[in-house]
Design a protein that fits this description.
This protein is mainly alpha-helical. It has one domain: Orthogonal Bundle (Rna Polymerase Sigma Factor, Chain: A), CATH 1.10.1740.10. It is elongated.
Length: 99
């Protein structure tokens, strides 16, 4: 089987299990679909490094998990940090005012 045939069969065989895993990890089907696509692209790019010591699905799960980690790292790095000490609170006759 050629490289392209192998990769095509992987997409057919493993898209659903990878998507289920990604939806579980991300709780968002649209983001999960994007991450699965990124995982397949990464797998195709590094196909020559696949040593067949593990099953293809195991290798693809590993790539997927790295892509999910990258997603969360970028997501939380880009969101501004909100800290409680940025807000000043004063008591005014039993009421708390936030400034």
């Amino acid at each position: 089987m050629t490289k392209n045939e192998t990769l095509k069969s992987w997409v057919q065989q493993y898209s659903e299990p990878l998507l289920r895993r990604a939806v579980y990890l991300l709780s968002d089907k649209v983001e999960a679909e994007d991450i699965v696509q990124e995982a397949f692209i990464a797998a195709f790019s590094s196909y020559d490094s696949f040593e067949e010591k593990s099953k293809p699905l195991t290798w693809l799960y590993t790539i997927l998990n790295h892509k999910v980690s990258d997603f969360y790292r970028k997501k939380y790095k880009s969101e501004p940090e909100i800290r409680l000490d940025h807000f000043l609170m004063k008591a005014d006759h039993g009421k708390i005012k936030i400034y």
